[in-house]
Amino acid sequence: MHIKHYPLGQLQANCYLLIQDKECILIDPADDANFLLEEISRQNLNLIAMLATHGHFDHVMAVGEIQLSMKVPFYIHEKDLFLINRLKETAKHFLGYEPQIIDPTIIKNLPNSSLKILNFKFQIIKTPGHTPGGCCFYLPEEQALFTGDTIFKEAVGRTDLSYSSKKDLNDSINQLIKSFPEETVIYPGHGPETTIEQEAPLYHS
């Protein structure tokens, strides 16, 4: 499997394109539908799904526009659907202008523990704290963990939002640190990659 990383949008949210044979999945489609559609077309890929680690606008703004061209499902935890419903107003508040956002359509709830889409097999780890429905996705064969805004390199997601929980986030991070091999690569929602081994001394309790 090939994992391609694109920091997109004003907030440089990390979008990940996972490619296996000619099938692909987008994790956190972020904020540049045109770029992503061009990349998928240029590489002659077949997009089969989009997954969100959480519902914040900077990670999902491109979803609806992509779905206009490709009728693919968008998976998100049901506890973050309220963030999708307020996508436009939240983006306007944080960006300082009113972006053109097309609402996502084919929305599916993430299952509780695993998700299989063709040859892509994910373990789903619920990691609330930054948002109520935050999730991480683990690919065992790749030893790859997509953490969204739960944990970054030497940092964690913010918990000063009305629906956030510092305790829940700390519990979620400790769950990740304790559950995965040290060599697991962390692909975060912002910033560079890191590993469980690098982050464990900072958060292990």
Query: Stretches where pLDDT falls below 50 for ≥5 residues?
Result: none
Q: How large is the count of helical segments? A: 7
- Report the helical percentage: 25-40%
Determine the strand fraction and express it as a percent band: 25-35%
Tell me the name of the CATH class: Alpha Beta
Q: How many strand units?
A: 14
**How many structural domains are formed by the residues?**
1
- Order of strands side by side in the largest beta sheet? 1-2-3-4-5-6
Distance between the termini: 33 Å
Order of helices and strands: EEEHEHHEHHEEEEEEEHEEH
Structural class of the secondary structure composition? alpha/beta
- Please name the CATH architecture: 4-Layer Sandwich
Largest sheet: 6 strands, mixed
CATH domain fold name: Metallo-beta-lactamase, Chain A
CATH superfamily annotation: Ribonuclease Z/Hydroxyacylglutathione hydrolase-like
Shape, principal axes of CA atoms: globular
Average pLDDT for all residues: 95
Kindly describe this structure.
This protein has 205 residues and is an alpha/beta fold. The protein has a single domain, classed as Metallo-beta-lactamase, Chain A. It contains 7 helices and 14 strands. The strands form 3 sheets. It has a 6-stranded mixed beta sheet with strand order 1-2-3-4-5-6, with no helix packed on it. Strands 7-8-9-10-13-14 form a 6-stranded mixed beta sheet. Strands 11-12 form a two-stranded antiparallel ribbon. The mean pLDDT is 95.
